[in-house]
Amino acid sequence: MTEKPTETHNIEIAGTGWSIPAEDGVHRRTLVKGMSWTVPIAATALATPAFAASPQPTLKFTQDSYSGTACGTISGAQVKRTVDGTAPDSGKTVKVTLSDGYTFANGSTTYSGTTDANGLITLPDIKVPAKGGNSSFSASSDKLTATAAVSAPKNTKSQQVSNTTAKADGPSDATPLNSGYWLKDGTLYFGTTAVKDSSGTDLKVASTSTGWYATNTTENNYIAVQTTDGKAYQVNSSTAKIAGPDGATPLNSGYWLKDGTLYFGTTAIKDSTGADLKVASTSTGWYATNTTDNNYIAVQTTDGKAYQVNNSTAKIAGPDGATPLNSGYWLKDGTLYFGTTSVTSNVTATSDGWYASNANNNYIAISTASC
Prior knowledge:
Distance between the termini: 110 Å
Number of helices: 1
Low-confidence stretches: 26-37, 41-48, 158-168
Region (Disordered): 150-175
Strand order of the largest sheet: 4-13-12-7-9
Mean pLDDT: 82
Shape: elongated
Radius of gyration: 38 Å
């Protein structure tokens, strides 16, 4: 008997990629009336589409970064909001904030606009500050936020009037301080000589003032020091003596700061009402030869008042809210003042300020930027 040739056929399960081989092209199980035929669970699982995350709105600047030049203008910056990362989201309010001297054409640092049919707001011209420099633009809309970097080359001019350079030899690799002092490995040196306390032990230094020069003794070079055990020393050349409250921060010209109170030596400085000055910030302190009380410091109090202190006497001497500098100078909103008199504007940086005993006594070095 001749065998019938065998042909193999596949029965496909639509939409799954699965098939069942059958020799006769019609599988036997399909011929049984009333018999159910189930597809394996694994196969149905493959046929189920994955859960898709709902679209999320987006907010971003149309450029990742912007650049300009000092005193120049950045034009055409835009922010785009979308419904889902692609489709524009029109009619939504977007607020943009600038900082670090960058402003819109009207001088404001904020701008709000409503997105157009393309989901965009176009910002007004942005003015680059005279000083240049780096910053970032910030945008917000509802709970969405975005930023973009901005850069401009720095543009400053350095100005200094009168300069005398004093040089002292110190230990190699030491940190230089004013008036001939050096700091190395926690030890204070005057020149190459380690400064010692009254017991003959090297002073172990936690912090120092910047150092200053005075003309009231034959040994003119001073610095204030807080030691690692919290003692407050004033050093005159190689001689150290305790001169301020324990735990106080050393300043120049005999001043110390502790817990927001300014001291001259161990005496708390008081205002005209007899209350202790509550200090927010100070200058470094300076020495002058124009009065019998030679030691000065400038102070901004916690209520924003600008005091100049001469030994133990405090008087208001500058604009409210100004940053205190030495030698009668104050800085407020980029304007330099001598007392309450405006000297120059567009100031970007200053030195501490200093006093010299010549015809014009009060000096400071500044950097300015102007268009």
